[in-house]
Structures are given as C-alpha cells and as structure tokens.
Amino acid sequence: MEQYWSGSAINKNKGMVENLQHCGIIKSRKVVEVMENIDRGLFVPNGVQPYIDSPFAIGYNATISAPHMHAACLQLLENHLEPGMHALDVGSGTGYLTACFALMVGPNGRTVGVEHIPELVSFSIKNIEKSDAAPLLKDGSLSVHDGDGRQGWPEFAPYDAIHVGAAAPEIPQPLIDQLKPGGRMVIPVGNTFQDLKVVDKNSDGSISIRTETSVRYVPLTSKEAQLKGE
Fold this sequence. Notes:
Elements: H1 13-22, H2 29-37, E1 56-59, E2 62-64, H3 67-77, E3 86-90, H4 96-105, E4 110-115, H5 118-129, H6 134-139, E5 142-146, E6 159-164, H7 173-177, E7 179-190, E8 194-201, E9 207-215, H8 223-227
Parallel strand pairs: 3-4, 3-6, 4-5, 6-7
Antiparallel strand pairs: 1-2, 7-8, 8-9
C-alpha cells in the first residue's frame, strides 16, 4: 500500500524501472529486462500517467496495480518463469503482467491470462499487440481468455507460476490444484485487511504458505458482483 514516488517527474518507462531498482523493489537483472521491454505506458487507459507509482482505475470496478506491486510479484515469481514454463495470470486486466510473463517463459512456454470482463479481454489483446510480447500472441504461446479466474484455466495446467490480481477471501482450490509441484502462486487474500500470500507446492504435493506483505486489491469475485461494485 506504500507509494514509492509520485508526481510527473517520471515520464518514461526506463525511469520507472530505475526508480524501482533504486527503491530496492527490483533486485534482479531478469526483472529489470522484462519491465524495460514491456512498456507500462501501452497498458493503461488514455489520459493516465503510467509511470507514477500508483494503481489506476481501468473501468468495470477494476484497477491496474501500482508499478511496485507488479515488480514485487515478478520478483517473487521469477524462478518459476523460466523459458519453457507455464504461467497463469488470473484477473489479467489490461494484460501488462501477462505480457511480462510471456516474455519470460518465451515461445516454448505457455502463458494464459484469464479475465471475466470481455471488454478488458479485448483491451488487453490490443495492448499486447502493441508490445514486445506481440509475436507470442501471434504464435499462440500467449493467450487471453474470458472466464472466471477463480476456476483457473485447466487446459494448460499444471502451472509453474500463478499470479492472482484481485483479493480472494480464501485461496481458491482449483488454483491450488492447477499449481505444479515445485510451482508458486502469489495471491492477495482477505477482505477489508489483505495479505499477499506466497503459496508454494512442494514436490510431494503439500502446500506451504507464507505472508509477504500487507496489500490492498479489489476483490476476486463474480463478474456480476464486480460490475455492481460489491
């Protein structure tokens, strides 16, 4: 819930990434490279200053997370986003993190975005088509689907990495089921008070869960409840 900088002094994607490094959010070269290559400015609505460290409304009672949260999630998942791995982005919104994941797992991997607002699915596909992840969308290793993310996307399971971009009251069992042994899920959990949980599936299928930080996300709910703002 912190804001690491504000104002319009940061007006380029590279400056945003440098700030995230300076603040200690980005710690690896791999995350620097993907955030430099996928320009956040392509994934926000018109009129929004994309490089400020703030979440923004994207319509339909949904938001795009602040840059520091995207960077933190990429750091937590980076070892599970190696070339050839499978990644699932639940509540994929404008497609920003989905595109980052796709670049990291590459054409021999599989990246799936799931979003239950059809207009955001269309918006995210248009955004990705303008980005460095466009070839992966074209070759089919990256896809974005209209669906209830609480059910995951079984077609390409199991997943090495699962990211959930909205807060669930509890961790949905289908997402745990679709996590590969050795895989990791990052998911905000809670109602009024939320924690970012790191869920690791051990090689024997058992689950380890730890709390990374306190967060504030929109709720992971049905499409109908989201549109009503519930």
